[in-house]
Prior knowledge:
By secondary structure, this protein is mainly β.
Amino acid sequence: xxxxxxxxxxxxxxxxxxxxxxxxxxxxxxxxxxxxxxxxxxxxxxxxxxxxxxxxxxxxxxxxxxxxxxxxxxxxxxxxxxxxxxxxxxxxxxxxxxxxxxxxxxxxxxxxxxxxxxxxxxx
Length: 123
């Protein structure tokens, strides 16, 4: 992993995989080679998520404690340039490379057409 190798070369910092043992939205408890009690989680501006227990997380350990750089991605159905946001309960938003937006099976095309999960035009 590029990020892990990069941090290993910086004195006092190390990146490694861990497991969320107690979830949270801003801080989590995780275990890797060391047990981290209060790991601050970071995401792009405006994004928030509650990392549930059992998720794999990238921990960056430094002199001031650990920081969570993110959990392992799960959506393997994406094409190049596509983005999805999924919840533990099954909610999903997908931004397609063709400009479409899919929300829980309904596809909103770039031109404003709405299709159901069978591809039938709804509106």
